[in-house]
Write a structure and sequence with these properties.
294 residues, alpha+beta, five-stranded mixed beta sheet, 38% helix, globular
Length: 294
């Protein structure tokens, strides 16, 4: 049965209770500048001093005030979809830091057992031009610890996971696998994402736990893709290897797609007809068979 792609792919922690919705951050204050004017008996001297004072004000105060205006962040409720969308669009950037293979964020001793695989995943993503950002928890919904947005090819991890390197690696594998799905669905220049494994190839316990987690949030349509990524989350170095393959060329030329994905790729003209599959007139989604975001 053909599935409709959810817009955002995210990893959630199955905590027993949701965090309480916190209040929106306080608006930054724009206090007016009040200057003191000195008066002089001599009119000419007074004017020169006034002009000098104005010049000093403009050179010292205005640049700092302009920077304050430029850096002002949109006001969005913390721990909300609006906050998450603001971060994805790169409009909310306060506290958001890009993660690289040389980042100090993963140089602590607690990351020693996980660093090499994390760096391998980051290297693969870098070759694909997919940046990874560490964002404050307030920019994520309560149960979301990571997300990948195929429309923008951006990857985000909740900063809270820096306290748990094992979960951090799991999220890197999970969200990295969504990038692999994006590669399999026609490449990163499109927004279509394809399952790499069929449901029957994924362990029953993974399917069950994924279904329980996402159905409880009203996201049952995301289960096939999320179960696929949850499987990858348990596999050492598999995400990094597939990202490297994706960087080399079309993923469907290097590993066999699922029957449904193969039909999609052949129908869009990206894959040659083979083994009983033939070109067909694409269905109502034919507009997606082009490079570009939808």
């Amino acid at each position: 049965m053909e599935q409709v792609l959810p817009i955002i792919k995210s990893r959630t922690l199955e905590t027993p209770t949701l965090r309480k919705q916190r209040t929106a951050e306080r608006k930054s204050k724009n206090e007016p500048f009040f200057g003191r004017v000195f008066l002089f008996k001599n009119k000419e001297v007074r004017m020169k001093k006034l002009i000098t004072a104005i010049g000093l004000f403009c050179s010292l105060v205005l640049p700092a005030y302009a920077d304050k205006l430029l850096s002002k962040q949109p006001t969005v409720p913390a721990y909300s979809l609006a906050a998450m969308g603001c971060m994805i669009l790169r409009e909310c950037t306060e506290g958001v830091e890009q993660l690289t293979v040389d980042s100090v964020l993963i140089k602590g001793k607690e990351f020693d057992a996980f660093r090499e695989e994390i760096k391998s995943i980051l290297a693969g993503l870098d070759k694909l031009g997919v940046p990874v950002y560490i964002g404050p928890s307030r920019y994520f919904t309560p149960r979301t610890v990571g997300l990948y947005k195929p429309e923008y090819n951006r990857f985000y991890v909740n900063e809270s996971l820096l306290q748990d390197p094992r979960e951090f690696l799991g999220t890197m594998r999970h969200e990295g696998w969504h990038v692999v799905q994006d590669c399999m669905g026609g490449g990163l220049k499109t927004s279509f994402m394809a399952q790499v494994h069929q449901d029957a190839e994924i362990p029953a316990w993974v399917m069950k736990s994924t279904r329980l987690a996402y159905e409880s949030m009203g996201q049952s349509r995301a289960v096939p893709w999320e179960a696929d990524a949850n499987w990858a989350e348990e596999q050492s170095n598999v995400t990094a290897q597939r990202l490297e393959m994706c960087a080399k060329g079309p993923l469907w030329d290097q590993m066999r797609p699922t029957p449904m994905t193969m039909e999609w790729l052949i129908g869009c003209g990206w894959m040659k007809p083979q083994e009983g599959y033939k070109e067909y007139a694409p269905n109502k989604k034919s507009d997606y068979c082009v490079e570009g975001k939808y």
